[in-house]
Amino acid sequence: MTTITHIYDKQRKLVSVTAVGEGTPETIVPMYQKARELAELHNANKVMVDLVGLSLDYDSEHIIDIIYRLIPVVKGLQVARIVDDTNFRQDLIEQLADSHQIHLKNFNNVEDALNWFSTEPQFSEAVD
Questions:
Q1: Is residue 128 helix, strand or coil?
Q2: Which domain of life does the UniProt lineage start with (predicted)?
Q3: Does 104 map to a domain?
Q4: Residue 117 near residue 78, CB atoms below 8 Å
Q5: Which of 80, 105, 125, 126 has the fewest CB atoms below 10 angstroms from its CB?
Q6: What is the pTM of this model?
Q7: Distance from C-alpha of 77 to C-alpha of 35, rounded to nearest angstrom
Q8: How many domains, in total, are found in the chain?
């Protein structure tokens, strides 16, 4: 079972997502879609996704498919992913996003992710 929470942090002007359980292709894309909807509702463009409690239940082949499905969902957002460990899957996700001009970066802690949000001036405006 997977539990996903989406919260808008008014003080930081960002959407915070926490996922715990098993991550499947059927849960990952809707998780990001809901984050985008919440960001648009609040005129925000920063999304922090805590995946430390989530185990990815799919192989590397599905990662590529998921990234291609996520490109239109996260385009224009600044996405910080909090991951337990940067392994080849996490690196692959970041590299694929980067190759498609998606502003997505992996972090091992919330503090570094929040610092990244504050040092990216190109994200001073909300999502179109």
A1: coil
A2: Bacteria
A3: yes
A4: yes
A5: 125
A6: 0.88
A7: 10
A8: 1
What are phi and psi for residue 67, nearest 5 degrees?
A: -60, -45
Concatenated DSSP letters for 74-112?
Answer: HTT-EEEEE-S---HHHHHHHHHHHHTT-EEEEESSHHH
Residue 66: inside a domain: yes
Does residue 74 contact residue 102 with C-beta atoms inside 8 Å?
yes
Assess if residue 9 is contained within a domain. Answer: no
> 122 in the Ramachandran plot: left (φ > 0), alpha (ψ -120 to 50) or beta?
alpha
Q: List strands edge to edge, sheet with 3-9.
A: 3-9, 14-23, 46-56, 78-82, 103-107
In a domain, 44, yes or no: yes
Tokens of 76: 């224009």
Q: How many CA atoms lie within 13 A of 79 on its CB side?
A: 27
Instruction: List the structure tokens of 86.
Output: 């940067």
Domain that holds residue 103: 30-83+96-108
Q: What is the mean pLDDT of each run of 10 residues along the chain (128 residues)?
A: 93 95 90 97 96 83 86 95 81 87 93 92 50
96 φ, ψ to 5°? -65, -40
